[in-house]
Please model this.
Amino acid sequence: MTSGKLVVLSGPSGVGKSTLVAELLRTCELPLELSVSWTTRPPRQGEIDGVHYRFVAPETFQTERQSGNFLEYCEVFGRGIWYGTLLEPVTTGLKAGKWIILEIDVEGARQVVQAFPDAITLFVQPESVEELERRLRARNTENDAAIARRLEVARQELAAAHWYTHQVVNREIHACVNSICDILNSYRDH
Ligand code: 5GP
Model:
């Protein structure tokens, strides 16, 4: 039976991961599929339940967690906001030969690699922390305190980046997508 690959993509909030992944799915000729995470944070404007995230109540999240149904989960920015990846859709996708992309934080990535040591790990770096801050502010979705919290977590994540097998810098979206696609293609015959 064919079996797909698990791809873990991390990088600080605001680095442009969602745009990169959307472009990657559109242009990279591999059977890629994005795993839809669960979160207890409210949807931003334009975010669709089941597409960008499964937006769930904290109690629903905790019930799944206690049942051991998550491959990984994490309280990403403290303050009771949880994010997680359900195990079952991942194993089903892999069995079907898909390359499943997990867009998750560093702590979640560690949990995934423990369970799937062959996972391909990529970290997206910003050009600079200043550029990251500029992007977070331009997004205009979080207040000052939330942005400060995201930047603090971003600094911690950047400090953990060396642990990933591959590093890419998001200077220019298309170049970055191409290098991610090249990296993934190098695993084709593994
Ligand atoms: P945002 O709230 O901006 O959509 O996402 C915040 C952070 O949560 C992102 O940096 C992203 O990597 C992380 N994240 C999203 N989904 C998951 C998940 O399922 N698990 C973990 N551990 N982190 C996630």
